[in-house]
Amino acid sequence: xxxxxxxxxxxxxxxxxxxxxxxxxxxxxxxxxxxxxxxxxxxxxxxxxxxxxxxxxxxxxxxxxxxxxxxxxxxxxxxxxxxxxxxxxxxxxxxxxxxxxxxxxxxxxxxxxxxxxxxxxxxxxxxxxxxxxxxxxxxxxxxxxxxxxxxxxxxxxxxxxxxxxxxxxxxxxxxxxxxxxxxxxxxxxxxxxxxxxxxxxxxxxxxxxxxxxxxxxxxxxxxxxxxxxxxxxxxxxxxxxxxxxxxxxxxxxxxxxxxxxxxxxxxxxxxxxxxxxxxxxxxxxxxxxxxxxxxxxxxxxxxxxxxxx
Length: 309
Fold this sequence. Notes:
Structural class: alpha/beta
Oligomer: single chain
Radius of gyration: 20 Å
CATH architecture of the largest domain: Alpha-Beta Barrel
Number of strands: 12
CATH topology of the largest domain: TIM Barrel
CATH superfamily of the largest domain: Dihydropteroate synthase-like
């Protein structure tokens, strides 16, 4: 191994990973026996197959490992088979409102399905059918609870989307799947407030062994969203909580992947590639530190070997 200024042995992490069940999302392992993976979501109209596949190719090149696509219409559902077949990385179908699209996604060969139980009408009545279809196909289901679409019953009980409400919603849906012998599940309990989100995931981690997908929902524009996601993710990942992540930004999805990878690298959960060591500058500086650092970063961007400069 060539020493390029990076440590020859793996650097330490802050905590061991929380022990979870293990699953496969296509070719990507998810759970405590696998590295934390980075996801993003297409911003294209899914029925525009060419545009969606182009964006998936860009995400793949940026290091994204799993991609999610929205399925709000029948045209989108009809496009899934072609997208799933041609995508370089596993495709997850993101389902809201219409349970029929869950079955369409499974039939299309998607690697997994995300369901939002808070806004799919009569979802609980369909769990038996969904469990059988997903079980027969051998694909996982993500129970994706979101503060903005929490079950009205739980909002009435707790008054707002508290950590307890988010966790109760997720575990209730899991119990329905478990009644039908299905446990190939991962969970997310997303909130726009990082503190509430952290509390929810900590609580959830104490009560189940399912893999957890981390996300701060509606995190905002790139600077604000990066800060909110980095803060929340760092706390949880440093405690060993979290098996896959998606940084939510009001920005091109490639930016989400860059931030996600950087978070993992900063916590020694992924080997660093390029690291620029530069001072913040002060009156002692004899050169333009800002300009020099930017030039070095631009010149070395894309390095695929560990390098500290």
